[in-house]
């Protein structure tokens, strides 16, 4: 299921730890698998568990605990809006509502064309930059006005 390139990345993560501590690379392994596949299916989690040498339930516990892991299919572009109190009070709620209206979906939904999934997120550590959004867990967008949200959505559509 995972490519040879993905296994090479996982091997680099495993090399950072003693042989008896391979489970320490589970988060990085899940992240590499998610980048490649878009989400973490039960089969993918089993594959990682077998490769690392840890119980599948332990891998699943990690994947379900952290909200950066997708345990069900998501759109090509996952946009997470920080709605924690500081961001909410500084425009996060408004920005989230603007995105819901623009995309025609609610939080935890995916557009019919499979392009966008919208999520609420907890603190992203950039309260002074509110409203803040995270795109595909890798790109933080700050000071998101309606115009900046429009530009972001148009950029991601391309």
Automatic annotation (TrEMBL):
SUPFAM superfamilies: Thioredoxin-like (SSF52833)
Co-factor requirement: [2Fe-2S] cluster
GO molecular function, one term: 2 iron, 2 sulfur cluster binding
Keyword Disulfide bond: no
UniProt keywords, alphabetically: 2Fe-2S, Iron, Iron-sulfur, Metal-binding
Binding note for cofactor: Binds 1 [2Fe-2S] cluster.
PROSITE patterns referenced in this protein's UniProt entry, alphabetically: COMPLEX1_24K (PS01099)
InterPro entries hit by this protein: NuoE-like (IPR002023), NuoE_dom (IPR042128), NuoE_N (IPR041921), Thioredoxin-like_sf (IPR036249)
Reaction catalyzed: a quinone + NADH + 5 H(+)(in) = a quinol + NAD(+) + 4 H(+)(out)
Pfam families cross-referenced by the UniProt entry: 2Fe-2S_thioredx
Family per similarity comment: Belongs to the complex I 24 kDa subunit family.
Protein name listed in UniProt: NADH-quinone oxidoreductase, E subunit
Organism of this sequence: Massilia timonae CCUG 45783
Upper classification of the organism: Bacteria, Pseudomonadati, Pseudomonadota, Betaproteobacteria, Burkholderiales
């Amino acid at each position: 299921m995972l490519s040879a390139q993905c296994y090479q990345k996982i091997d680099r993560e495993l090399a950072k730890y003693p042989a008896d501590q391979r489970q320490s690379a589970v988060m990085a392994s899940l992240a590499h698998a998610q980048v490649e596949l878009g989400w973490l299916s039960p089969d993918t989690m089993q594959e990682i568990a077998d490769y690392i040498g840890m119980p599948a339930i332990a891998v699943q516990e990690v994947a379900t605990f952290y909200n950066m892991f997708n345990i069900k299919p998501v759109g090509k572009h996952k946009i997470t809006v920080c709605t924690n109190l500081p961001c909410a009070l500084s425009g996060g709620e408004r920005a989230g509502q603007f995105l819901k209206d623009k995309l025609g979906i609610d939080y935890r939904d995916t557009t019919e064309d499979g392009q966008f999934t919208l999520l609420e997120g907890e603190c992203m550590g950039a309260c002074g930059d509110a409203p803040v959004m995270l795109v595909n867990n890798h790109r933080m967008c700050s000071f998101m006005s309606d115009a900046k949200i429009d530009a972001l959505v148009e950029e991601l559509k391309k």
